[in-house]
Amino acid sequence: MSAIRRVALALSALACTPAPAPVPAPVPAATSRPDVSDAAAAEPPLPPSPVDAGAADADAGPPNAPARSTPGSFRCGPGTCATGTQTCCGAGTRGVCVPSVPNDAPQGKMGYLKTQWEICDKAAFEQTGYSMSHIDRCDESIDCGKGEACCDQFLFSGGTLGECTRLPANGTTPCDFGERCIESATCRLPGTECIEGYCKKRVTQLRCGEAECSGATPVCCADPLGCQAECQSFKRVLCTKHADCVSGQKCAVFGYGAACLRLMQDPESQQLVCQNDGDCTLRCASAGGKRQRCRVSEIPWLESCQCP
User: 175-206: per-residue pLDDT in tens?
Assistant: First the structure.
């Protein structure tokens, strides 16, 4: 699992734990969750014979990408679903393939996944015994049409959506957490290659304190401090400046890690790197609307925008 997805999940994890009865997915303040207030009184019919695509440990997070590209299908648990006609309703590392249904509104508008969400929410619980944690319609951009990328998007607090999203003409990423990939040849974001399941810029000269990591200690870590052979993914320093990221992303410090993000869910805990106070434009709700200031972060060689 990539560092970016771990960050998103660590901020507000959705536990895939057994429940005595199906529980509606959480309703975030401003997400694409269906507006169920105008839903019909009867529950939507479950598509016939959904396919349980896997029976792996559902307590873990979504599965890592398969080892090679598979045109015409995409990963769903340990199994696969058919590209273009099926949707994967994920519960941890398990997945259930159901027929894809047309969106209820234009992509990205409130409620556009209403019907698919309701079908997946029910199918995931009935087939796996666990609550839905993600919905997928692709695992790499060759599953998408021309001019689209397979994006890992924010779905709800702790949950993600893998769907094909049109690429902007200016080359910026439309993906909240990144363009999904299996092989570098499938990456459609300019100047990227497939690194740990996402299309990223390869940072060749990453400053790690006073050193640049290489050889037997290639990983820059904030805890333990410095170049290491390995460390926990959420303690890795993957960027030190915004130029290390793809267009549309910013380098942010979160506790003892740093990574490129497009979606800033909590600017007070996801702190943009900075060089001076002028780089900090966000205001702090917890401090009466005062602007953030550039201060030394938990990573001693990086400064970040922080609330007073």
Answer: 999 999 998 888 999 999 999 899 999 888 88
Return the closest-CA partner of residue 150 out of 214, 209, 104, 194. 194
Domain extents in the chain: 3-200, 207-306
Secondary structure class of 49 (helix, strand, coil): coil
In whole angstroms, what is the distance from residue 182 CA to residue 213 CA? 25
> Strand 198-200 relative to strand 250-254: parallel, antiparallel, unpaired?
unpaired
What span, in angstroms and rounded, lies between the C-alpha atoms of 285 and 113? 31
Contact in structure between 306 and 297 (CB atoms under 8 Å): yes
Q: Count, in order, helices (H) and strands (E) of the chain.
A: 2, 22
What pTM was computed for the model?
Answer: 0.75
Tokens 């960027």: give the residue. 239
Residues 6+ apart with CB under 8 A from 44: 115, 118, 119, 122
The predicted-structure confidence for 202-240, as pLDDT tens digits, reads as follows: 888 888 998 988 889 999 999 889 999 999 989 999 999
d(CA 116, CA 104): 9
Give the whole-angstrom CA distance, residue 135 versus residue 116: 9
Gyration radius (Cα) of the chain, Å: 20
Q: Using alpha carbons, list the distances in angstroms from residue 88 to 3, 127, 133, 178.
A: 23, 12, 11, 19
Enter the tokens of residue 73: 């299908």
